[in-house]
Amino acid sequence: MSIVRQRGWTPAFAASGGASGFGGGGFGGRGGGADDTTAFYGNPGSMLTKRGTNGGDVAIVSAASEVFLKGTQYAREYIANPPKEFLDKVEMASGKKTRVFEGAKDGAETLGALLDDNGATAIVTRESPTTVPNAYLKDMKTGTLMQLTKNVDPAPEFTTLQRRRVVVTRVDGIRFVVQVTLPADYKAGTHLPGLFWFYPREYTDQAGYDRTLRTENVNRFPTSGPRSMGFFATQGYAVANFDPPVIGEAGRMNDNYVSDLVMNLTAVVDELDRQGFIDRTRLGIGGHSYGAFSTVNALVHTPFFKAGIAGDGMYNRTLTPNGFQTERRDLWNGQRTYLEMSPMLSADKMQGALLMYHSLEDQNVGTDPTSSIRMMQALRANSKTAALFLYPYEAHGPATKETLLDLWSRWSAWLDLYVKNDGMALAKKKPVAPATQP
């Protein structure tokens, strides 16, 4: 691992950590991108098939000449009525349809496979917000279940964390969802140091954003593995995960990137402060890839954050001259937007302490490690508090145990120093007097 350091950081502050936390805000899903039509909510499902004697897929047909349609039933009120899987049996001669399986109301049930062509038995997986997924053998006629697996909760301290689904409204009326994770013993009204982990996405209107939420299933077991940023809730933080919308005319959404970023973050800070979750004077922000790029933009364009964590990002849009994300204009046709969105060009305005990391074998064409190296040089030239860690043999998403433990230990130490303790740990630390000789 190569290390480039600037004032305000020393490896001596590192502590044990977990594993990776890369990608977007998680929570909620991005499915259902098609327009809001009857076809989505009234989808009859797809025909179940099996491998035929010639190697191709053929329809499963019962002894009574019935076929099976499997699908997911979605509701417009998807919080009150979470998505449910279903299986219908259809008589080929008459078209008569009979429902033989429907997911539970108090949990999430997934139909894995029929064990016979008549649909008498099947493998189903059951889970709930507090129960880990397990597989069962289900008698489709009587409904009786026989448990097949005995999975246990790999991280019960994550499962017991408190979770809130908060709808935030921007000053222009645009609404979006923030998933807040709080310590298990959280008491209402306690303003905690906060960590925002986010990944902006582009839309043409409110309806476009809303469609990405409709596959959300609140009955599923929460993501509680080592990739969850909920780890920081176990360390006393209020963690906010969200994918804030950037909204504008088709093909030109990014013309509003900076203004929407400011509106989004302002709305989240104000709402979570109003609800008593966060101490708005002790906030950190972070993200991976496009989230990292947006993290540095947040430090440049807003005054809210004491620290940032940015991984495998691109901070100078002139290095992606042929487009990026949903941006299809090239640098020469969208030059103003490219420059405005490049936080390196505003490095002198950055507030807060920035920890960057980058994989040296990053295969993503839009996030060459050169970007982080040049960003670090820009921050050093402007006397900003920053650190850059470069990890060899890692791709766009760091994967090895050694790298992940190193990353999480540095994230924890960085946030504790600059967010939880507001950078005062170093100032208060007294030098140790030299030992005297007898």
Describe the structure.
With 438 residues, this protein is of the alpha/beta class. It has two domains: 2-30 and 155-427, Alpha/Beta hydrolase fold, catalytic domain (Rossmann fold, 3-Layer(aba) Sandwich); 60-147, no CATH class. Helices cover 20% and strands 28% of the residues. The protein is built from nine helices and 21 strands. It has helices at 38-41, 156-159, 206-211, 257-274, 290-301, 335-340, 370-381, 401-420, 424-428, and strands spanning 2-5, 46-47, 49-51, 57-59, 66-73, 84-91, 97-102, 108-114, 121-128, 131-139, 145-147, 162-169, 175-182, 192-198, 201-203, 238-242, 245-247, 278-288, 307-311, 353-359, 386-391. A nine-stranded mixed sheet has the order 1-21-20-19-18-14-16-13-12, sandwiched between helices. A four-stranded antiparallel sheet has the order 2-5-6-7, with no helix packed on it. A four-stranded antiparallel sheet has the order 8-9-10-11, with no helix packed on it. A hairpin with a 6-residue loop joins β8 and β9. α4 packs across α5. It is globular, with a radius of gyration of 25 Å. Mean pLDDT is 89; it is low at 1-20, 24-33 and 430-438.
